[in-house]
Design a protein that fits this description.
single chain, 203 residues, mainly alpha, Rossmann fold, 2 domains, two-stranded parallel sheet, 10 helices, 2 strands, 58% helix, 3% strand, flat
């Protein structure tokens, strides 16, 4: 990757090493790299295309993020290639879903009760049903909070480390700005924004 960047006259802003399987969706380092690239309006460079092609969720996430990507082992691969891989993976997932729905529909046609319609399904679980209804009212707020947490997943560990060393919120903001980091709105950091990120991290 370093040789490729040098050849292209590009600068590597940060390196992220992922050790999780390409089949898994919870890949923290890839999520951090994507968050950094998206926030900094940079591209994402990966060593091997097959490290991405096995995970439909991540491919679709990259499509939505609109982050340019280059694969060192296949420089010809571009956003179209990644998009096609995502479409194929999505089609396979849809085919599985369609088969599942067809099987459930056939069971229902036979008179089989499904899910919460089954007799006695809620017996002793009424409180759980009520709790679930209340949770529905807070979904949008949770989604917004999650998006904010993911946007700074690559910076949060450093911010927490600096805070633990006794640095003020202003000093942390100054350090982030010095390193060229911006907020997800492209603005310089200030103490209030640093505090919000740390609060969301549970500090």
């Amino acid at each position: 990757m370093e040789a490729y960047a040098k050849q292209q006259g590009a600068r590597i802003a940060a390196l992220y090493v992922e050790v999780e399987s390409g089949k898994r969706s919870d890949r923290p380092e890839l999520a951090r790299a994507l968050a950094h690239a998206k926030r900094s309006k940079a591209g994402l460079c990966v060593a091997k295309l097959d490290r991405l092609s096995r995970n439909a969720a991540f491919l679709l996430q990259m499509q939505e993020a609109k982050v340019p990507i280059v694969c060192v082992d296949n420089p010809a691969a571009n956003e179209l290639t990644i998009g096609l891989l995502a479409v194929i993976a999505q089609h396979e997932a849809k085919a599985i879903s369609d088969r599942t729905r067809a099987a459930l529909a056939a069971a229902k046609a036979r008179g089989t009760a499904l899910g919460s319609t089954r007799p006695g399904h809620w017996d002793g679980r009424e409180q759980a049903r009520l709790t679930g209804a209340k949770k529905g009212a807070t979904v949008s707020a949770t989604v917004r909070s999650k998006a904010a947490v993911e946007a700074y997943s690559d910076l949060r560990p450093m911010m927490e480390e600096l805070r633990a060393k006794g640095m003020s919120l202003q000093a942390i903001a100054d350090e982030l700005n010095k390193q060229g980091h911006t907020t997800r709105r492209g603005k310089p950091w200030n103490p209030v924004q640093v505090a919000r990120v740390l609060e969301r991290a549970g500090r």
